[in-house]
Structures are given as C-alpha cells and as structure tokens.
Specification:
Helix 4 packs across helix 14, helix 7 crosses helix 8 and helix 11 crosses helix 13. The strands form two sheets. This protein has a three-stranded parallel β-sheet with strand order 1-2-3. A two-stranded parallel ribbon has the order 4-5. The protein contains 14 helices and five strands. The longest helix has 30 residues. It is mainly alpha-helical and 356 residues long. The radius of gyration is 21 Å and the shape is globular. The structure holds tryptophanyl-5'AMP (TYM).
Length: 356
C-alpha cells in the first residue's frame, strides 16, 4: 500500500465499503479516483463493493438499460481485479436493509444539512421543483450503504467528500440521539460507546479529481454530452488515441517543474493522469517531458493508457459475455452482504423501539 490509512474508530472492525452507480459510461475518473483504490485495498482489509442501483434511479433510467449497466459494472469490477470470492460484490437493491436504514436516516438527518449538498445543487440546477425526492435524499441512502455494515473506510473520488462528511454527521447524531438506549441494550462499541463508527474517507493518489479532456476546469463525468470529454473503460486503442490527440491543451510547452502547472488546468490534468497510470510522481514526469511539445507527451500518454486500460477492456468483454457467471457473483455477494446487514438492522430496530 503506497499510502497511509487512518485507523478505524476505536472498537470497530476495519471494513471497506464503496459503490458506483450503474448508469453507463464508466470512465477514467471512476477508474483512477475509485476502482484503482478498491483493488489495492483488497490486500489490507475486508472489502464490500456495491453496484448502487437504488442510487441510479434517482434520475430516469430505462429499465432494460439499467439491467445491462448493472451487469457491465460488475464485469468492470471483476476485470479490474476485484476478487468476488475473497470480498463481496453485489447490487444494492438485493439487500433491502439499505433502503430500510436510509428511511431511519431520513428521520435523523436535517433538511438544512441536505440543502447544503453541492452535488444536489449541481444536479438539480434551476429545476429544483421537478427533480425526484430521491435525488434530494440521496446522501441519506449513501450513509445507510456504509453504516448498515458499520464500515469504517470508504474509498472515493474527491467529489464524494461532502457526502461522506454528512454520513459521519448522521452516524454521530444517531449515536447521540439514542445514546442511553444504546447503552441500556449494551449495543455500544469502544470507549465512545456508539453504535455506528465514524467512517474514514480514503481519497488518495494523484487523480482524485480527473478533469474533462475538453475543459480542464470541469470534472470528467459520465453525463457530459461530449464523448471526447472522457476516456471510457470500454474505449478501444484507436478511440483512446483520438481522444488524447484532440484533448485541449494550451500553447506553451510542458513545464519542467510542478509549480509551472499552476493556472494550466489542462496540462495539470494530463500530467496527473499520466502519474496515476504510471505510478510515478508528477515531478518525475515533468523531468522527462518538460520543455517538450504536447504532441510527444500525448503520444506517450496514449501508449501508457492503451497498455493499462486495453487489457481491462478485453477482460470486461469476456466477463460480460458470461451472464450466468456475473449473475451468480451478484447473487452470492447479495447473500453474504445480507448476512452482515440483517443483524445490524435488527439492532437498529431495537434501538429505535420498533417491535419485530
Ligand atoms: P459515482 O457513481 O458518481 O462515481 C463512482 C466513483 O468514481 C469517482 N469519480 C471520480 N474520481 C475522480 N475523478 C472524476 N472525474 C470522478 N468521477 C467520479 C467518485 O468519486 C466515486 O468514488 N454517490 C456515489 C456512489 C455511492 C457510494 C456509496 C460511494 C453510493 N453509495 C457509499 C461510497 C460509499 C456516486 O455517485 O459515485
């Protein structure tokens, strides 16, 4: 592991949880910001990796396309090196405890907290009256995803940081609101005697926020109308070459030192992508390419990306062709996830005072 991980909340077993929405176009940002870390963490902790289909339907999804995207994302997880026997891979809607805990959290979280979520503001834009109620409550479900397993660590890209802070606030408020009940039922953990841990974000590496190839000030995103703004994990070598060739740059040659990337978002982004794919520092890349033309650097970047992503794309196709295997992975993962989530949800029901 090439980075330090914060310790788990005292008394809680270290456990990783993360998820990705099955809404098409898995891209280089998802890979470098999230999946690459998912793969690394498998060696140091138990991990649960989810395909968050309940989150996907907060905006309209064509049902047949959604089913296809769930299988494709599963294939991408496996192709990237996630091991579904050692760890857990499943789709969220299979484990009803996510939705149940999300409801309890909707009654714990405050409107003001959710009103501050920048991703909701961005997604809803000016049309707030017309977006789904689910889109507003989205972060409550995300908190439930993590806490229904009492997971302690969450690898994500930079854009999810605020949602994770909210998850921590929800956990803390639940622990406080029900503090005496948690003690009476002897369900508290560690010195703090809380029921839920305070989950630690893992936002690591040189590419926690990969930017659009067309505009270095905008995040690389699956919803960008231009396919040239992103590299998809399913792109072939020619497409990757075309996209990097057309990627926006500025007229100056590359700087020789990192400081020279300031105020040059497109150059900074491409150097960051190279660093993340090659496992090198930005400084060492600039030592090699500084002073040179973008064309030469882009060709090297293309070779590197094709080298790293090509085999993943190939394996994705192979896994995707075996639908029976993909479905069996999700079924088995769902059963194993339920075995962890169900007792936690039963405790939550006892804490809240429901009869069961
Ligand atoms: P989603 O599906 O939008 O993105 C999946 C992961 O990819 C990261 N990511 C990026 N990283 C770097 N640069 C980019 N341009 C970029 N774009 C996306 C995201 O940060 C994320 O880690 N709400 C989550 C899914 C979710 C979740 C959870 C995550 C639901 N429940 C519980 C963790 C724990 C989302 O929409 O990610």
């Amino acid at each position: 592991m090439d980075y330090a991980i914060a310790p788990a909340t005292q008394g809680f077993k270290p456990l990783v949880f993360s998820g990705i929405q099955p809404s098409g176009n898995l891209h280089l940002g998802n890979y470098l910001g999230a999946i690459a870390n998912f793969v690394k963490l498998q060696d140091v902790m138990d991990c649960i990796y989810c395909i968050v289909d309940l989150h996907a339907i907060t905006v309209w999804q064509d049902p047949a396309e959604l089913t296809k995207s769930i299988r494709e994302l599963t294939a991408a997880y496996l192709a990237s090196g996630i091991d579904p026997r050692k760890h857990i891979v499943f789709n969220q809607s299979r484990v009803h405890e996510h939705a149940e805990l999300a409801w309890v959290f909707s009654c714990v979280a405050r409107m003001g907290w959710l009103n501050r979520m920048t991703q909701f503001k961005e997604k809803a834009g000016k049309d707030r009256e017309n977006v789904s109620v689910g889109l507003f409550g989205y972060p409550n479900l995300m908190a439930a995803d993590i806490l229904v397993y009492r997971a302690t660590h969450v690898p994500v890209g930079e854009d999810q940081k605020q949602h994770l802070e909210l998850a921590r606030d929800i956990a803390q408020k639940f622990n406080n609101d029900f503090g005496s009940r948690i003690s009476d039922l002897h369900l508290g953990v560690g010195e703090a005697n809380g029921f839920f841990p305070s989950c630690e974000p893992i936002i690591q590496g040189p590419a926690t926020r990969v930017m659009s190839l067309r505009d270095g000030t905008k995040k690389m995103s699956k919803s960008d109308p231009s396919d040239y703004s992103r590299i998809n994990l399913s792109d072939d070598a020619d497409t990757i070459a075309q996209k990097f060739k057309k990627a926006k740059t500025d007229p100056e040659p590359l700087p020789s030192e990192e400081k020279g990337l300031e105020g040059r978002p497109e150059a900074d982004n491409l150097v960051g992508i190279h660093a993340a794919l090659s496992g090198r520092t930005k400084a060492s890349i600039l030592t090699e390419f500084g002073g040179g033309q973008f064309r030469v650097f882009k060709e090297a970047l293309t070779d590197l990306a094709v080298d790293k992503l090509g085999p993943i794309g190939q394996r994705m196709k192979q896994f995707a062709a075996d639908q029976a295997y993909i479905d069996s992975v999700l079924r088995d993962g769902g059963d194993r996830a339920t075995a962890i989530a169900a007792p936690v949800m039963n405790d939550v029901k006892d804490i809240v005072g429901f009869l069961r």
